[in-house]
Hints:
Elements: E1 2-6, H1 16-28, E2 35-39, H2 55-69, E3 73-77, H3 87-93, E4 95-97, E5 102-106, E6 109-113, H4 124-133, H5 136-143, H6 147-165, H7 177-187, E7 191-194, E8 201-207, E9 210-216, E10 226-230, E11 237-239
Parallel strand pairs: 1-2, 2-3, 3-4, 6-7, 7-9
Antiparallel strand pairs: 1-10, 5-6, 8-9, 10-11
Amino acid sequence: MRALFISDLHLSRERPDTVRRFEQFMARVPAPGDALYVLGDLFDYWAGDDDLEAPLHRRVTDACVAAHARGVTLNWMVGNRDFLAGSKFAERCRMTSLSDPHKFDLFGRATLLLHGDTLCTGDLAYQAFRRQVRSPEWQSAFLARPLADRLDEIEALRARSESEKSVKPAAIMDVEPTAVDALFHATGAERMIHGHTHRPARHDGNLGTRAVVRWVLPEWDQRPGYLRVDATATELEYLPSTLQEI
């Protein structure tokens, strides 16, 4: 068995090459018995589970169902772009939904999975926005609106987000080291895996006498790749180049 980790695919009609790469990845890379973990932002946006029949969404769900039928275990958590994806989407894809963060034993090592946006504590405006849109009250009111209105609102929010990012200091859009250390301390994890920042890397550190490692997953439109670990490996392997050929 192997565990594979991906995030930040940002699938959309505007990224046909990435959609095609995802379909081919799902057909070729995860083998029967593997566990795949999607750590948020599978989609560039999600307006609600009543949009499941959109052509793009059918292609994605079909690829997931086919992988599941081959014996691949599928797990996922929402990101900052697709946080409105709910139980109907997960059921359609044969995926198990994970909380953020999610701690589990990965081949004998305590491992923590998260999307990563909660670590960017220096971006106070984003964290306030996140608290607002993650509230049940906001989501209930938003999802009660017609689908077309929701899609228009999401497009406006995306445009505003891109405009704001262009003037924000780069540092506040990365993780805050004290937030990372605090989460390692609070959970007792040895390994942390996340996406969101689009800054793929391995970060080694020490908390007292305890060695820890943090892996940041890549954004597929820039540098497609995934992390892999199996029962015999002492560490994760970062495979950024293999998907370029798909």
